[in-house]
Amino acid sequence: MKRIAVLGANGQLGQTLNSLVDKEPDSYSFYSKEDVDITDKESISTLFNKNDFDFCVNCAAFTNVELAEKNVDQAFLVNAEGAKNIAEVCQSKNIKLVHISTDYVFDGKKREPYTTKDKTDPINQYGRSKLKGELYIKETIKEHYIIRTSWLYSLFGKNFLKTIVNKTKQNVELKITTEEQGTPTSCLDLSRFIIYLIKSHDIHYGIYHFSAKGKTTWYGFAKEIVKHFNSKKTANIFSVDSYKTIAKRPKYSVLDILETEKVYRNLNEWQESLKAMIEELKI
Ligand SMILES: NC(=O)C1=CN([C@@H]2O[C@H](COP(=O)(O)OP(=O)(O)OC[C@H]3O[C@@H](n4cnc5c(N)ncnc54)[C@H](OP(=O)(O)O)[C@@H]3O)[C@@H](O)[C@H]2O)C=CC1
Ligand SMILES: Cc1cn([C@H]2C[C@H](O)[C@@H](COP(=O)(O)OP(=O)(O)O[C@H]3O[C@@H](C)C(=O)[C@@H](O)[C@H]3O)O2)c(=O)[nH]c1=O
């Protein structure tokens, strides 16, 4: 039996992972920011000195893309220095690290899916801070999995799915951009992949791209969500060429998942995974 510490447990990915591990033979322990603050290396050391873990899954991050433009130091403190702290403690205690990164490490200038070998060049502070976190991990600990994923949604916390569902229920008129292309990814699918990686013995360390199959725009994502409502409500969604935001977003951030599919075959089309999640939401 492996022992796994999950940090950032109160976020949407942390909570989704928690909802799946009950019947797993491995033993997962979940720690929120109140239990372990990843910007405080001592708090990570204390936890790892008290318990014997084989793996650490880092779900903790500063994920507010807009706020990261203003609170640059805080974004880097959590996403870069926090990741470095975890990597250093894991390395010193022989704990394997699973870390989550983002499609926003790319500039979005490509028009075909980004592979793990493609050049990174983030265009916003969130992406820069996450990339720095990746680099720290790579130089600190050999036994790591960095999973880059995109456009996460779940039943928990704040995400695009829940925003669209709530605004649609309130009959709010929505204008949604067609300017960016990417792949919505279910936290359930990603959690299952994380569990699988930890269970397996023979998957090479390194960077993996994980998303659902296919691609869309944020407008396409919103339209697919409201398809599951009655038809009158879908009339409230309009496409716009661009939506004013503080942070720049990559115009194209589809991830190439072919390498991941060689080790994990259970990838779904994004619409299929979304349907399964919406059934859970019972709208
Ligand atoms: N959301 C998305 O669309 C995507 C996310 N990712 C990555 O996936 C991972 C999981 O994201 P997601 O679950 O959506 O994020 P959330 O924002 O839902 O969760 C992040 C969690 O980290 C916690 N946290 C923040 N700062 C610290 C800290 N100093 N110490 C410990 N915990 C902290 C937050 O607590 P609090 O809220 O109290 O600050 C929150 O509970 C992240 O690495 C993110 O960068 C990648 C691609 C897409
Ligand atoms: C609310 C809203 C957003 N938008 C646009 C703004 C933006 O371009 C796009 C998505 O907005 P959001 O702020 O929900 O998403 P954003 O914070 O950009 O989502 C990103 O989060 C980080 C954590 C990641 O790692 C990325 O993979 C990605 O999921 O939709 C509209 O066009 N209309 C709207 O009503």
Automatic annotation (TrEMBL):
Give the residue range of the signal peptide. none
Q: Name one GO molecular function term.
A: dTDP-4-dehydrorhamnose reductase activity
Q: Where is the RmlD-like substrate binding domain?
A: 3-282
UniProt entry tagged with the keyword NADP: yes
Reaction equation(s) it catalyzes: dTDP-beta-L-rhamnose + NADP(+) = dTDP-4-dehydro-beta-L-rhamnose + NADPH + H(+)
Q: Name one GO cellular component term.
A: cytosol
Alphabetized, the UniProt keywords read: NADP, Oxidoreductase
Gene Ontology BP, a term: dTDP-rhamnose biosynthetic process
Pathway where it operates: Carbohydrate biosynthesis; dTDP-L-rhamnose biosynthesis
List the EC numbers from the record.
1.1.1.133
- Report the protein's function: Catalyzes the reduction of dTDP-6-deoxy-L-lyxo-4-hexulose to yield dTDP-L-rhamnose.
Q: Which InterPro entries match?
A: dTDP_dehydrorham_reduct, NAD(P)-bd_dom_sf, RmlD-like-bd
Family designation: Belongs to the dTDP-4-dehydrorhamnose reductase family.
**Protein name as catalogued:** dTDP-4-dehydrorhamnose reductase
Q: What organism is this sequence from?
A: Winogradskyella ouciana
Which Pfam family, just one, is annotated for this protein? RmlD_sub_bind
